[in-house]
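Students often ask why we bother predicting the structure of a whole assembly rather than each chain alone. The short answer is interfaces. A chain on its own may look different once its partners are present, and contacts between molecules only exist in the joint model. In this exercise we take two input lines together and write out one structure for the complete complex. Read the inputs first and try to guess which parts will touch.
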Amino acid sequence: MIDLSVEIAGIKLKNPVMVASGTFGFGKEYASLFNLSKLGALVTKGLTLHPRPGNPPPRIWETPAGLLNAVGLQNPGVDFFLSEILPAMKSFEVPIIANIAGFTIEEYTQLASRLTVPGITGLEVNISCPNVKAGGMALGAVPELAAEVVEAVVKATSLPVIVKLTPNVTDIVALATAVTQAGAHSLSLINTLLGMAVDVNSRRPALGNITGGLSGPAVRPVAVRAVWQVSQAVDVPIIGMGGICTSNDALEFILAGASAVAVGSAHFRDPLAAVKIIEELEQYCIENGIRDWKQIIGAAWKGQN
Amino acid sequence: MEEPLKDHHCPVLDQVMISPGYYLLSLTAPQIARAAVPGQFVLIRCGTRYDPFLRRPLSIHQVKRERGEISLLYQARGTGTRWLAGRGKGDLVSLLGPLGRGFTYSGREKRGLLVGAGVGVAPLLFLAGELAALEWKLVILIGARTKAGILRVESFQRYGFVKTITGDGSTERQGTILSLLEEETKETDWEGIYACGPRAVLKGVQKISRETGVPAQISLEERMACGVGACLGCVCEGTAGEVLRYLRVCREGPVFDAGEVILHD
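Now the answer. The structure tokens for the assembled complex follow.
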């Protein structure tokens, strides 16, 4: 039995493979497909203070080796989540990280404090959603504003605070440095890339929201680059994500500097993707005689120095 | 007992192009055959690499429970379905399902009106077989632009009276399937209309259902990612209200009561 455990910002994970926010709902649907306790952690769909119907359809559009989505943070709101959804999630026996999305700093702090309850292991602060007009990426693309949000959230909760960053910036290192100085305990890299498609049959934008977020293997090199740059610039652990479909993809992120990874869009292709990656990582450690897999975190740049 | 949802690796039994561009794919899928109800679908992986990335939702066309077989009827029109059209006997394909909410019906010896436009007949053959087993009297309306799009007439004739119509008049009648439906709904008392096809046809079905008072169920198609209700990608607009405005086609659907959804062009 290989020990794949790792600690991220005080959160003990039995393995470094989490499921990414937005692709996995609140776990219920996938619980009929596999035992969710196999996962390192489950990150919830983005939660807002008030229920949100989300964007008009079409919300997804397939692209080469990926997809655009513009769901627009459809969710039942934090109160409904706490009273109706979270209690049932306890049976999954997996650390639950609540993804929070505010439209003002005040909303972020309210979300953080309301979600500081037993059953929630950590918060992922979503300051990177490209599919809403306020909050989200609008706050998260400016280092000073992002830092303000993070500082307020850290004050409002006793839980570990993970900050999910957008790649839609010129200098992701500046952003990462700002939110880390503001107290972030960990960083999730990356949210989707802002994109767009035109339907040549209708001659109109393909998505109801016009623009959407690109995910899938197409974005992986962008994500790996972000992890490589940021992990060398900050001291907090990085959760790498962006198009991870196989254990090799996961290893690429780990070698670039990620202490954990999250699997998202890959579930659309293979609903068991995360579980298979965990099994393959165990196999990789056995085959390569790795006793403590954490030795290889950042090996791609540590080996250079 | 409800079967757990699974990704099934199913061998192809047979694949035939039944009309230019339209394929009938038979698979060995005993668990899906056992669990499926008419109107449900499978998500089928089309390709071994990352392009196309998403699975394709296809209605279950026919089920042979005792033989553990299902068939799918589809039109090859993009990279995914064209890949699928290239599979032959013995090839394995990956199917997640059965998924979604199917048609609802109850009682014996009722009168049912099935409306299938083009490849929209796909979920209706399974339904027709189940209803015929309950001794329903069925009239099955099949429409398409041209004769090449009129599919599976002989199979439907086993279960009811089939009427076809084409835009170019290359079958018995020229016109739209909605004109046929209007005629039919004038004449008899129907237990229900069960329809699948392009959005414009389904909008017409909604209107006729509203005007005649005959309840209708419509099967919707939408671009899908997860297929299990987690990603909220495949929604359509519901009539229920503000917060619950969007319904998941993969979960609350793909079959909806006609009055449950608002269809946009």
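Check your guess against this: The radius of gyration of chain A is 18 Å.
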